[in-house]
Amino acid sequence: MNRVLLIDDDEELCEMLAEYLEAEGFDVTSAHNGEDGVQQALAGDADAVVLDIMLPGQSGLESLRQIRQQSLVPVLMLTAKGDDVDRIVGLELGADDYLPKPCNPRELVARLRAVLRRATPGASRETLRVGEVTLRSAERVAEWAGERMALTSTEFNLLETLARQAGRVVSKEEISERVLGHPLSRYDRSVDVHVSNLRRKLGQLPDGRSPIQTVRGIGYQLVAA
């Protein structure tokens, strides 16, 4: 049974979501402020965290930053509808996905299952190598020039998707479907932000370029040199 931590100051909403999630087979705990939420998230008992960005006191963004300093647990943000700034900042801080509030509980379940599925080690024992990048899917380990990288589950899956098609351009639409588990919507910058985060964790090619190249208007490709 997957364990989900809800961090939201709206206790009534938490009770409603917890009841729905438990009926779908999740084990749910709740925290109603950022400080308690961070403490519970870092205790390591949750398989995924649902975090409201608009928390009073310690904000959801600050809570996310503190979680990401010590943990790669999958985090799904709840954001105000139409608030692109908080959404982008949250993704830049390492959130795996987001939903605007008020959210449909059925969509929340679908997004949670997708996030948890992406965080589950694969059965394949193969090792992928593209230039300085090495990926071991079964162990969810990614290395650059022999040094292990701390990647979120979304970043690992993004790198794996690009590595499996190294040298080819992978469209943003395909990345959204394969990595985020949902179609790319108009004005959605999630893919771009995740690519930007991943680029910062990778090294550079000998000529100073990023190994993830942008093909304007189409998508991205991973190159060895």
From TrEMBL:
Span of domain Response regulatory: 3-116
InterPro entries: CheY-like_superfamily, CpxR-like_REC, OmpR/PhoB-type_DNA-bd, Sig_transdc_resp-reg_C-effctor, Sig_transdc_resp-reg_receiver, WalR-like, WH-like_DNA-bd_sf
Gene Ontology molecular functions: phosphorelay response regulator activity; transcription cis-regulatory region binding
Subcellular locations according to the entry: Cytoplasm
GO terms for cellular component: cytosol; protein-DNA complex
Database matches in PROSITE patterns: OMPR_PHOB (PS51755), RESPONSE_REGULATORY (PS50110)
Modified residues (4-aspartylphosphate): 52
Keywords from the UniProt entry: Cytoplasm, DNA-binding, Phosphoprotein, Transcription, Transcription regulation, Two-component regulatory system
Highest taxon above the source species: Bacteria
A single GO BP: regulation of DNA-templated transcription
Segments forming domain OmpR/PhoB-type: 125-224
DNA-binding region residue numbers: 125-224
PANTHER family, A to Z: REGULATOR OF RPOS, TRANSCRIPTIONAL REGULATORY PROTEIN CPXR
Protein name: DNA-binding response regulator
